[in-house]
Amino acid sequence: MIERPLAPPRPLVDVVVDGTTVAVREGSSVLEACRGAGSDVPTLCYLETLTPVNVCRVCVVEVEGSRPLVPACSRPVEPGMEISTTSERALHSRKLVFELLASSVDLGLVDQQTKGWMEQSGVDAGRFGESARAVEHQVKIQDELYIRDYDKCILCYKCVEACGEDAQNTFAIAISGRGFTAEVSTEFDVVLPESACVYCGNCIGVCPTGALIGRVEYDMRRDGTWDETTQTVTRTICPFCGVGCSLDVHVQENAIVKVTSPTDHSVTSGHLCIKGRFAWQHVHA
Ligand code: SF4
Ligand code: SF4
Ligand code: FES
Questions:
Q1: Which residue's alpha carbon is nearest to atom 4 within ligand 2?
Q2: Percent of the chain having pLDDT more than 90?
Q3: 134-284 matches 1-122 in CATH topology
Q4: Which of 40, 66, 112, 257 makes a 20 to 30 Å CA pair with 74?
């Protein structure tokens, strides 16, 4: 079969990242330019499969001629742009954002990469004390498939995007409230089984903090039996229909404990339906 390009190639533009000139495609983000130049700019609300919502501000960089710091994930490059990822102001701002988050949200389940960014930034998680915690939430356990623990939520909007037009188009959740009372909610805060949720779990797939996790993982963590060091991950194809989604099956002690999907799948971008993500219990029958 002849492969046809979907769009004409975009011309290259030169930008300078930390003193090094790099060529990137016109319309690329500053983040893509920085990462192309080997600079590991942290992100929290950004995911390559979602539209940037630009809310966490840990990705800020300094751009020559721009008074405010620039969010790298959502700002497109311009020819000749001079970007500094390690200016004192950018590093200070990033550290402060991490410290504000760490003081107000439980970041205990963020991934190793984010922990590394926090360490590199010299974050003092207790800098603003426990009193910065705005609202205490009860873990929402409303079904057998997944739980919502909004004490871990950084309001990154990723779940809202994935439930909405970036993937699922179900619009079961949105941010409700303002300021310190802002939180992710179903319509009128109804329990999940009574909401529009179709249990695709795509919100779990994109959540960076463990605020949303599968029920099996939650129960095992609570019981102290969750052990990623003994888990294997096997890539396979979902057998339920002809779409052919890629599945990463996480197995511990010969039992499936979680199913995820790689974001680089050209059709699904890591999103699944309820069957692919949750309907694996029959394997254990
Ligand atoms: S499981 Fe799917 S439908 Fe339900 S809230 Fe999450 S993304 Fe939306
Ligand atoms: S629940 Fe997770 S994905 Fe959703 S806004 Fe909170 S941290 Fe982000
Ligand atoms: S990653 Fe850029 S604003 Fe959140």
A1: 159
A2: 85
A3: no
A4: 112
Q: Which amino acid is at 54?
A: N
Q: How far is the CA of 181 from the CAs of 26, 41, 55, 156, 175, in angstroms?
A: 40, 30, 16, 15, 10
Q: What is the dihedral of CA 109, 111, 112, 118, to 10 degrees?
A: -80
The domain segmentation of the chain, as residue ranges, is: 1-122, 134-284
Percent of the chain with pLDDT over 70: 96
Assign 132 a pLDDT band (cuts: 50, 70, 90): low
pLDDT in tens, 236-249: 999 999 999 999 99
In the chain, the largest separation of any two C-alpha atoms, in whole Å, equals 63
Residues recorded for the chain: 285
Give the residue whose CA is nearest to atom 3 of ligand 1: 197
Rounded CA-CA distance 285/37 in Å is 50
CATH topology of domain 134-284: Alpha-Beta Plaits (3.30.70)
Mutate to test the pocket of ligand 1, among 189, 198, 278 (most ligand atoms within 8 A of CB): 198
* 84 Cα: distance to centroid of ligand 3 (angstroms): 16
Phi-psi region of 270 (alpha: psi -120 to 50; beta: other; left: phi over 0): left
Q: Which atom of ligand 2 is closest in space to residue 148's alpha carbon?
A: 1
According to DSSP, residue 86 is labeled: S
Note the CATH architecture for domain 1-122: Roll (3.10)
pTM: 0.92
Residue 60 CA: nearest ligand 3 atom is: 2
